[in-house]
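Quick one, tokens below:
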């Protein structure tokens, strides 16, 4: 196979697979946070702060996958 095609395939797989985990994690996290706020509305500010912090950490993993995909594609 052509090396350029393999690099493109590897970059696509890196970002595709690297985004699945954070996407699922953020969905589960937000769903559980909404359940917690629904059960205890008084705790909403604390739950929301912790949820946003956890989402930021999960997004960092997706950004790492993007960096790896760009490195594969252009280096």
């Amino acid at each position: 196979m052509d090396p350029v095609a393999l690099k493109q395939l590897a970059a696509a797989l890196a970002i595709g697979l690297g985004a699945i985990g954070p996407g699922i994690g953020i969905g589960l996290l937000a769903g559980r946070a909404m359940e917690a706020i629904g059960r205890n509305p008084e705790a909403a500010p604390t739950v929301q702060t912790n949820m946003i912090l956890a989402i930021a950490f999960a997004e960092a993993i997706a950004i790492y996958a993007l960096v790896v995909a760009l490195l594969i594609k252009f280096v």
